[in-house]
Amino acid sequence: MTIETGAAAAVDYENWYSEGNATFGDRLAGAREALGMTQKDLAGRIGVRLKTLQQWEEDQKEPRANRLQMLAGMLNVSLMWLLTGEGAGVAPPMGEDARSAEAEGLMVELREMRATMGALAEQMGRVEARLRLSMAREAA
């Protein structure tokens, strides 16, 4: 879908995040923003410094393979999409007039649910670690 605005200006929403239109850093920032995360939030969740994440988003540096996997999982996009813009990713940004108030409210609700799920997953991991430690002590 191509949208015309002004004098012959066109935005190709179907290929917004393709290799020809966006960089790795653009896709990383877009996926992070789609989840309503700040750079600081994402950096903390994947265990890197804020400056490192900023350099990735500005295409000054590239993450290692293990971080790429973590990023794709954390951002709920495919690794291929993150690298090339092809595959399961996020929808391109739309103009504010293209979103209805109801759709915007639903997006906010989904972001809140995703954040809650992430927090619960982290809490489950901590409880599991404590349980394993407790079981190991009992076995010894």
From TrEMBL:
<keyword id="KW-0805">Transcription regulation</keyword>
<keyword id="KW-0804">Transcription</keyword>
<dbReference type="GO" id="GO:0003677">
    <property type="term" value="F:DNA binding"/>
</dbReference>
<dbReference type="InterPro" id="IPR010982">
    <property type="entry name" value="Lambda_DNA-bd_dom_sf"/>
</dbReference>
<keyword id="KW-0238">DNA-binding</keyword>
<feature type="domain" description="HTH cro/C1-type">
    <location>
        <begin position="28"/>
        <end position="82"/>
    </location>
</feature>
<dbReference type="Pfam" id="PF01381">
    <property type="entry name" value="HTH_3"/>
</dbReference>
<protein>
    <submittedName>
        <fullName>Helix-turn-helix protein</fullName>
    </submittedName>
</protein>
<dbReference type="InterPro" id="IPR001387">
    <property type="entry name" value="Cro/C1-type_HTH"/>
</dbReference>
